[in-house]
Design a protein that fits this description.
The complex is a heterodimer. By secondary structure, chain A is mainly β. Chain A contains no helices and eleven strands. In chain A, 0% of the residues lie in helices and 57% in strands. In chain A, a hairpin with a 5-residue loop joins strand 4 and strand 5. By secondary structure, chain B is mainly beta. The chains are: A mainly beta, B mainly beta.
């Protein structure tokens, strides 16, 4: 069966520090991968998606970047965090476009 | 741009009462998905509707896709405390590989 792993679960980082969040999927190949951010009590904002290794599409200009170095690995990064980067970061995957998403358990990031 | 809206934003019900949340899209959708997010948790896929006028049931949950494929609803019969959470609808983006999520309806169930 397919599983998705996301870590860490919680993170407190000072302003200006770097960020690296990792997401891996098991039990499938060539998944579509997504990074979403959810502000407290708000909806889901798409940050990046990837349909293959090295293929990254960015939805909004921001202080973040994403990479897909391997088929089932998706990484969200920042060189210098801002206070506004705080939020709940969710990785998700789908088999193909139009399929339902399976979300990871998320990372709660607080920038202080 | 493309918008997916949901009403109400919040709903408080007494246990045993019914609950309905409505989803409206600014564009015609090829399909619509519904997710549930428990407090402190992550969204979990519930169902996908594809056909115009489609109705699907999952136990006490009834999902409906509008005839014009621009709106959808989720109805819960006789709510229970386990129904607490935020319910999101999502439609395919006009461009790209992703889905656009509505802002969600947060349901509270009072015992």
């Amino acid at each position: 069966s397919q599983t998705i792993h996301q870590w860490p679960a919680t993170l407190v980082q000072p302003v200006g520090s770097p960020l690296s969040l990792e997401c891996t999927v098991e039990g499938t190949s060539n998944p579509n991968l997504y990074w979403y951010r959810q502000a407290a009590g708000r909806g889901l904002q798409l940050l990046f998606y990837s349909v293959g290794i090295g293929q990254i599409s960015s939805e909004v200009p921001q202080n973040l970047s994403a990479s897909r170095p391997q088929d089932r690995q998706f990484i969200l990064s920042s060189k210098k965090l801002l206070l506004s980067d705080s939020g709940f970061y969710l990785c998700a995957w789908s088999v193909r476009r139009g399929d339902g998403y399976t979300f990871g358990s998320g990372t709660r990031l607080t920038v202080v | 741009g493309q918008q997916v809206m949901q009403i109400p934003q919040y709903q408080h019900v007494q246990e045993g009462e019914d609950f309905t949340t409505y989803c409206n899209s600014s564009t015609t959708l090829s399909n619509i998905q519904w997710y549930k997010q428990r407090p402190g948790g992550h969204p979990v896929f519930l169902i996908q509707l594809v056909k115009s006028g489609e109705v699907k049931k999952q136990k006490r949950l009834t999902f409906q896709f509008g005839e014009a494929k621009k709106n959808s609803s989720l109805h819960i019969t006789a709510t229970q405390t386990t129904d607490v959470g935020t319910y999101f609808c999502a439609g395919p983006a006009d461009y790209g590989q992703n889905f656009v999520f509505g802002p969600g309806t947060r349901l509270s169930v009072l015992p």
